[in-house]
């Protein structure tokens, strides 16, 4: 027993060293401490959008083939799309200040099923965000290292993902603060190079415009206007990865500093302006330097070398610093997947689309299970694709545009239904309407171009994931019906318990046998467990202690008001048990606690209860489903058994009461 205790203490010390000290959810400043100001949110969430400048414009430019001067039209289209999508998502932030992004918008404004589809697409998108960001970052890093180092590409990717997982397990703010220097270096280096190249090529602008006109006439006269439109739209769709990440802010509103909506909108503006400048600036710079791909190098690496040719040794080191910052930012961009993916999972868990354990928080107040599943899934994708950025880009942009379309459709429907209530509904309707048209156009183009190249894999993955999610929801719905039937028996139970009808509570004797019952609300499970104690032990127990733990999960940890509401509800629930038993002549009292881990809170309360009632036995009711299976055990936490094991280890008796439904 002592060795076991020593082992657990050492394990806890190691966890504290790696992850950090537990945070107190009742700290009056906790929401201030863990929230992000607009600048930090821009780093943590905008890095995904900004990093897309490392591959989105490149893919769009290369898709033009020999018609490089048409990149001007593509660049203008990219700028328009960025501001339309960001404006439409700003409206989503205003309408959904509690966050939730595409999943919540589609669920509330369209239907729960379409919300589920949006959530599945978003989760796959965030896994691919992590995978493509890490793979692209490793490629950028290998661009200035010896070619032989490419053998270690997957190893590098594995290490980076593991490091980011650990940073996120420590907490959102800590993971972002660590990444600020990398983000700052990227911005400074890229803005410097783009402004320098544009400034030094101002005199070339007339030549570029002339060549653009010539290119347009050449295509139109040779193959017609439709061919010109096809080339531009094809290039535009191949650069669709540029827009991914814009939706991230609307998902992460709960992580923003108060006033959250204002902070989130400021973050969105920063993201849109910086992304438009970066993407369009790079497209124009590609034209000025007439860059072409080189083996083993990204197009940006080739471009930066051309820009700094005349800078001598300083230019060489500046390019290295720029590519390092690009690789670093791509690694930082994976942070968006770790910030928003677990949040979407938590929202879907609260709605019972995925296992409820994904809504639980760790003692660092992060959705630990979500972080781990996102990281492990990204590792699997990187291994499956062998870190091929070309293949990952094919898989990448389809998923996010499904969410874009559903979000815009939901908002369009909302403004139309609210036209008599909202003064400027037409303006809002037009913004989301244009966003809807653009995103549909892009998705159709991307699917048409990329379907046979591997885009079908993403659609198949979304469909398969949705199928699994529907099965999970069906199980929870069936379980909910069974629990409702159990709850319906509550009103009949007191009469069936053969309780002492004495209305005056007996004199308490702390040495008497005491039943300590773990409950989770005043419901059928708790009442059935109480009834079973009387059926099995008759009047053996004179004292009753009711213990309820208020679980602070992702649904509660949104603000101080939500936590206060939880405390009020828990106290109200256990009071009902105390009044019921007291009214039948038994002594009763209650103990409550609040935290992220039920088992840990029960373990803390147990010594206090035993000190007051030395002859106490702990009880907990456990629902037994008609068809118990591995799936059932996976979808339910079975915290009663975990509590039993923990108390057994401390020599405390704990009886599990089976409650068949």
Brief sketch in words of this structure:
Helix content is 69%, strand content 6%. It is of the alpha/beta class. The protein folds into two domains: 30-475, Up-down Bundle (Amino acid/polyamine transporter I), CATH 1.20.1740; 490-660, Rossmann fold.
How would you describe this protein?
There is one protein chain. The chain is an alpha/beta fold and 661 residues long. It folds into two domains: 30-475, Amino acid/polyamine transporter I, CATH 1.20.1740; 490-660, Rossmann fold, CATH 3.40.50.620. The protein has 24 helices and five strands. It has a five-stranded parallel sheet with strand order 3-2-1-4-5, sandwiched between helices. Helix 21 (560-582) links the parallel strand 2 and strand 3. The model has no long low-confidence stretch (mean pLDDT 82).
Arithmetic mean of pLDDT: 82
Which secondary-structure class do the elements indicate?
A: alpha/beta
The share of residues in helices is 55-70%
Q: What is the CATH class of the largest domain?
A: Mainly Alpha
Spatial shape: elongated
Distance between the termini: 37 Å
CATH architecture of the largest domain: Up-down Bundle
Helix tally?
A: 24
pLDDT below 50 for ≥5 consecutive residues: which ranges? none
At the fold tier of CATH, the topology name of the largest domain is: Amino acid/polyamine transporter I
